[in-house]
C-alpha cells in the first residue's frame, strides 16, 4: 500500500446498554469503516452488553479520514437493524505519537494527552492517550448516535511498520 503510515489496531472491547431490536434483546455486531476499508466483529447472540474482545486492524495512509463505528442487530430473515453509530478522528492519537517520538523514554503509564468529551465528538467520557508497555494506546467510550441508548468501548493501539511513522 503506498503512503502507508502505519497500522491502527482497534480492540473492540464491549458494548454497554445497547438498544433492544428484537423482542427482548439484540444480536449485535460492530462494523468499522475508514475510507474503503470495512471490518466487522462476530455476532453476539441475545445480549445488550456484549463483550467482543476482538482486534480489527486498519491500514492508515490518509489520517484525515474519519473512523466510523456502526452497530447492527443481526436478523436472520430480514435486513439487519441499525443500533447506532459513532465517528472519531485519529488526529489526537497521531499527535500523541509525534510527542512521544520527540520526548522518547517515557515512563510506563505516562498520560501523553487527554481528550475531553464534547458535542464535537462521540466520547461519553474523557479519553486518555498513554504510553503503556512500550506502546501508545488510547481507551475510549463512544456514545452511539441515532439511537435511544448505547456505548461502545474501544482501545486504539498504533503499530509502526518499519519506521514509516516519522510524522
UniProtKB/TrEMBL annotation:
Gene Ontology BP annotations: abscisic acid-activated signaling pathway
InterPro entries assigned: C2_dom (IPR000008), C2_domain_sf (IPR035892), CAR1-11 (IPR044562)
Domain of life: Eukaryota
Record domain C2: where: 1-103
A GO term from the CC aspect: plasma membrane
PROSITE patterns: C2
SUPFAM superfamilies found in the cross-reference section: C2 domain (Calcium/lipid-binding domain, CaLB)
Keywords in alphabetical order: Abscisic acid signaling pathway, Calcium, Cell membrane, GTPase activation, Lipid-binding, Membrane, Metal-binding, Nucleus
PANTHER family: PROTEIN C2-DOMAIN ABA-RELATED 2, PROTEIN C2-DOMAIN ABA-RELATED 4
Protein name: C2 domain-containing protein
Organism taxonomic ancestry: Eukaryota, Viridiplantae, Streptophyta, Embryophyta, Tracheophyta
Amino acid at each position: 500500500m503506498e503512503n502507508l503510515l502505519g497500522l491502527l489496531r482497534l480492540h473492540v472491547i464491549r458494548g454497554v446498554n445497547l438498544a433492544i431490536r428484537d423482542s427482548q434483546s439484540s444480536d449485535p455486531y460492530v462494523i468499522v469503516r475508514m475510507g474503503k476499508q470495512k471490518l466487522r466483529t462476530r455476532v453476539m447472540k441475545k445480549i445488550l452488553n456484549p463483550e467482543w474482545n476482538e482486534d480489527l486492524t486498519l491500514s492508515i495512509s490518509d489520517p484525515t479520514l474519519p473512523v466510523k463505528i456502526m452497530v447492527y442487530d443481526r436478523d436472520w430473515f430480514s435486513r439487519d437493524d441499525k443500533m447506532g453509530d459513532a465517528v472519531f478522528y485519529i488526529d489526537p492519537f497521531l499527535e500523541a505519537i509525534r510527542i512521544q517520538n520527540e520526548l522518547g523514554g517515557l515512563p510506563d503509564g505516562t498520560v501523553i494527552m487527554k481528550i475531553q468529551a464534547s458535542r464535537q465528538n462521540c466520547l461519553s467520557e474523557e479519553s486518555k492517550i498513554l504510553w503503556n508497555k512500550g506502546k501508545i494506546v488510547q481507551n475510549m467510550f463512544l456514545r452511539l448516535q441515532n439511537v435511544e441508548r448505547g456505548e461502545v468501548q474501544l482501545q486504539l493501539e498504533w503499530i509502526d511498520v518499519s519506521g514509516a511513522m516519522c510524522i
